[in-house]
Amino acid sequence: MATPKSAPLQTPAGRNVNNVVLGDLLFKPWNQSVYPEDLVAKDADRLYVCRWCFRYSCDEDIFEEHKSACEHRITPPGMKVYDHGGFAVWEVDGQNHKLFGQNLSLFAKLFLDHKTVFFDVATFLYYILTFTDPDDPDSYFVLGFFSKEKLSWDANNLACILIFPPYQHKQLGKLLMGVSYKLSGWDSNGGCIGGPEKPLSELGHKSYVRFWAERIARFLLRGKPSGSSLETDQQKPSSTPKGSRKRPLRETITVEELGLGTGMLTEDVITALKSMGLFEPQATPKKRKSTRTAAEDNTTPPGQMVTIRKSDVWEWAQAHHLSLDDPVREEGFEGHWPRENVSDGDGQSVSSEED
Questions:
Q1: Are strands 305-309 and 349-353 parallel, antiparallel or unpaired?
Q2: Which of 21, 149, 274, 328 is the most buried (most CB within 10 A)?
Q3: If you ran DSSP here, which 8-state letter would residue 332 be given?
Q4: What is the CATH classification number for the domain harbouring 82?
């Protein structure tokens, strides 16, 4: 899995398509294509790809003829699940739209080095991101997509993700990542805590760690969500003697609860906190020498406390120019998706402390 941000510095060895024309946009592919050789000749100068259905041809005349008759030129296939600010996400079932899924996968391979599923698309759902210009409401552009397995034993909420090169560096990848977490949390079967398929590529890992960190920062800075069970000092009778220094506001939540609140796996929560420089377990009291092995001594004790000062989270957010507004708006989801997610759990503890 990868989330491309920029083209490789070197031309991929054996690249058999020199240029791609997506609608009226011309750009270079990053990887060798796996298109059938009887349809896409080796060393093709230009591959014309329909911006609505991703059918392809090396013949410009055939391409132009198809554009005027494409069955998806007015609306994408599948069901709309999200619509806000001109951006929409459509769920496309690979079983019902096999040709669309295959053509999209073949096109994505030009930019995703690790993508391996091209034709067996029936077991996947595809979520395509579109934009409709208010000045031209009868036309739309497909900007990218993510895919996920219908049945994932590892609770993966995403298999691969791609924002097409002409539309990158616009925070659209984070929008799709956010949608993937929302949909898995609101799944009709009761929801699940999950994450992207692993192992991640180097670029995919970098993108996700930043996304996770921003997600956690918003959660900690915007206050506890409805339905969560955070215990704060304000909810307890104060035992601070009169005239003494008032203790800072303190909320206690476990890492697992933080994962439930953000829809993230515990391991991803810890990865994000470490990347933010916030994961510093408190020193535990020294105990008398025991006969435990070195391996046992290196394990993290259950319930290990970690203190996070809200001022440190604010400092991280400001340094990274983080907007506290979630890029995914709940009011944008269509149909039955939105529902309250009540969470509870036990595990490794984190306390959020405000100076």
A1: parallel
A2: 328
A3: G
A4: 3.40.630.30
**Helix-, strand-, coil-residue percentages of the chain, each rounded to 5:** 25, 20, 50
Quick one: 188 and 307 in the same domain? no
197 annotated active-site: yes
Q: Which candidate in 64, 65, 197, 214 is catalytic?
A: 197
60/189 same-domain check: yes
Chain segment 48-62, per-residue pLDDT in tens:
999 999 999 999 999
One domain for residues 92 and 229: no
Task: State whether 174 and 221 are in the same domain.
Answer: no
pLDDT (tens digit per residue) in 15-30? 678 999 998 899 999 9
d(CA 220, CA 258): 9
163: containing domain: 17-196
For residue 294, is it within any domain? no
Do both 145 and 271 map to the same domain? no
Using the Cα atoms of residue 100, residue 102, residue 106 and residue 109 in order, give the sign of their dihedral: positive
pLDDT of 150 above 50:
yes
* Residue at 226 is within a domain: yes
Q: For residues 108 and 101, is the Cβ–Cβ distance under 8 A? A: no
Compute the half-sphere exposure of residue 95: CA atoms within 13 Å on the CB side of its CA. 4
Structure confidence by residue, pLDDT tens digits, 208-267: 999 999 999 999 998 543 333 334 333 344 444 555 555 555 567 788 888 888 889 999
Same domain membership, residue 81 and residue 42: yes
Contact 15, 35 (CB under 8 A): no
The answer to whether residues 112 and 22 belong to one domain is yes
Q: Are residues 118 and 94 in the same domain?
A: yes
What number of other Cβ atoms are within 10 A of residue 175's Cβ? 23
Tens digits of residue pLDDT in 160-215: 999 999 999 999 999 999 999 998 876 545 557 889 999 888 888 999 999 999 99
Give residues with Cβ within 8 angstroms of 314, minimum separation 6. Answer: 221
